[in-house]
């Protein structure tokens, strides 16, 4: 079994596993509880101590927190202190003017609802889920500071903020006395925006980085190489990944990437995970899974995290 490694989050003393498990898909009210529970248990047995969730995960919104709360009560009641659990608010959660965005009103109320669904007194990390241009950054970050001071969360983070807003947030949060712990951006071989400035800001401000969708929602795996399986995310109809995303041009790239993976004795998914972890700024790769075997596969990536300059160039040429 590949051994889990743990890396320090920015300037903090906390270490996160190189691979963390997100509960965006496959933990909702309509999904199999038995499968969800098996995935969380297996992940923990593999050394995955960090689980990421958000107020709106499901469907229906809120149900992934309920599922995870049920698993925590049943299997982890005596292990709370061995886990880093995060949740977020920033997308539409309830009707009216106070159920969305980045106001103090919304963030505090949403976290209180999340804690009830999870059955927890506090979460380890609370994120503002996405920038809200209509709320002053000072208000949003003041709310995060308040959340820590009232013991609802131990650390705070931001997600999908630009490099520029991240720099401002780092300064404002430092002044408040609650440092920005971690940033959660979208990053994979197919979505490389953070290489254009955000990674530099995170290094300079000593903020951790946990890229989400490192497998591009499953595109960077062998899942779609021979058509679109009926039980795949692209076929699922949630709309975030569509059958039309699986283009012939993409498949041609994936087949070439798979050759590189094969030469490294890796699966395509393992290559994709190792590739996001190659930056020293990246603390952990935040994967999703629909079955236990996919978690085993991802953790296997840690057996070969090193890339030669030639390999990196070959990957760049394909992309
Ligand atoms: P990934 O890119 O890791 O995609 C996961 C999906 O890829 C799985 O559900 C599965 O899909 C497929 N897959 C995974 N492993 C394998 C494998 N070894 N072989 C074949 N297929 C595989 O991540 P997600 O898009 O799920 O995002 C991960 C987490 O990031 C979320 O759960 C959430 O916590 C966070 N996130 C945060 C966001 C934000 O705004 N902050 C936005 C989105 C995600 P299939 O169902 O087809 O089997």
- Which small-molecule ligands are present, each listed once? NADPH dihydro-nicotinamide-adenine-dinucleotide phosphate
Low-pLDDT sequence parts: none
CATH domain class name: Alpha Beta
Q: What profile does the largest beta sheet have? A: 8 strands, parallel
Mean residue pLDDT: 97
Number of strands: 10
User: What's the CATH architecture name?
Assistant: Alpha-Beta Barrel
- Helix and strand run: EEEHEHEHEHEHEHEHHEHH
The largest sheet has its strands arranged as: 9-8-7-6-5-4-3-10
- Determine the CATH topology: TIM Barrel
* Strand-pairing-aware structural class: alpha/beta
Our estimate of the beta-strand percent is 5-15%
Described by the principal axes of the CA atoms, the overall outline is globular
Radius of gyration: 19 Å
Q: Structurally, how many domains make up the residues?
A: 1
The named CATH superfamily:
NADP-dependent oxidoreductase domain
**Tally of separate helices:** 10
* First and last CA, distance: 31 Å
Binned, the helix content reads 25-40%
